[in-house]
Specification:
This protein is of the alpha/beta class. It contains eleven helices and 13 strands.
């Protein structure tokens, strides 16, 4: 009887440790597969889109994803995601990592883990027709504002500025709603909106409020209980800052670096260069 009880206890203990062991095997899985699958939002520059006439993705976040593959010594598969499905894709194992304009919030960090060192700090820019009369966030009260599903802008817009909110599946639907007069303004990621308004067809619109809405750290996300991979990725991101590559890449895509990113470059510059491929 004692032997049977001991066997049952050992089996139960093995079952309890199994999920952690499996979850912490992402690095081994990626190396054995020879490929890392990274979810990237390809809804527009500077972060990601497709080269004209092809299915080849390019952009700031795409380059980050490919460099991770290079640093790990494996191929990178860029998997298109949108705000509405990015977290689900990660939780379901359709991607290994997310570099998808997904900032840190308490709600997200309850379900997922992230790399501690951010690669950028992003907020929301408001785009409205010229002469809309909007000059500060408080002017949005009772106006209809459109955002993407899953974006972190919902709470401040509704609770702080009392807007009538409409959420669409993706950025393209949000912008179509703005052009179709279904909303008075839209709030989307600031660098994407600044790049958009450089295009002639958007000359009738503007960003009337200089300050971004709820700027927050934009980080690489991964599933829970992946400390080995999490630490490895943190070393890679810190190396991006130390080498100045991240700042140079942002300039290549006409992104204005946030004060946080400049400060992180100052903090890490001079650190020894990371040897490739990176190993735990």
């Amino acid at each position: 009887m004692t032997q049977k009880l001991l066997a049952c206890l050992l089996a139960a203990a093995a079952l309890l440790t199994l999920p952690l062991a499996q979850a912490d095997d992402l690095y081994t899985t990626i190396k054995e597969r020879g490929k890392v699958r990274i979810g990237v939002n390809l809804s527009g520059l500077p972060f990601g889109t497709y080269k004209p006439g092809t299915q080849t993705p390019f952009g700031f976040a795409v380059d980050l994803a490919r460099d991770i593959g290079d640093k790990l010594g494996v191929e990178t598969e860029v998997v298109p995601v949108v705000a509405a499905n990015r977290a689900v894709f990660l939780q379901q194992g359709k991607v290994d990592l997310l570099i998808a304009n997904m900032t840190v919030t308490p709600e997200r960090s309850e379900k997922l883990d992230y790399v501690p060192t951010p690669y950028e700090q992003l907020g929301g820019a408001l785009v409205a027709p010229r002469n809309s009369g909007i000059s500060r966030w408080e002017d949005l009260k009772d106006k209809t504002v459109c955002i993407s599903q899953g974006a972190s802008f919902q709470q401040p817009l509704t609770q702080d500025y009392h807007v009538n909110l409409k959420a669409y599946r993706g950025q393209s639907e949000v912008l179509l709603a703005l052009r179709g007069n279904s909303c008075d303004a839209v709030v989307l990621n600031s660098p994407i909106m600044h790049e958009l308004l450089r295009q002639p067809e958007w000359s009738g619109f503007e960003i009337p409020i200089a300050e971004d809405l709820v700027p927050a750290d934009s980080v690489i996300w991964l599933r829970k209980q992946e400390p080995r991979m999490q630490q490895l990725l943190d070393r890679i991101v810190q190396d991006w800052h130390a080498s100045g590559w991240l700042l140079a890449l942002g300039q290549q895509y006409r992104m204005q670096p946030s004060p946080l990113i400049v400060a992180l470059h100052d903090r890490y510059q001079g650190a020894p260069a990371l040897k490739t491929p990176v190993t735990p």
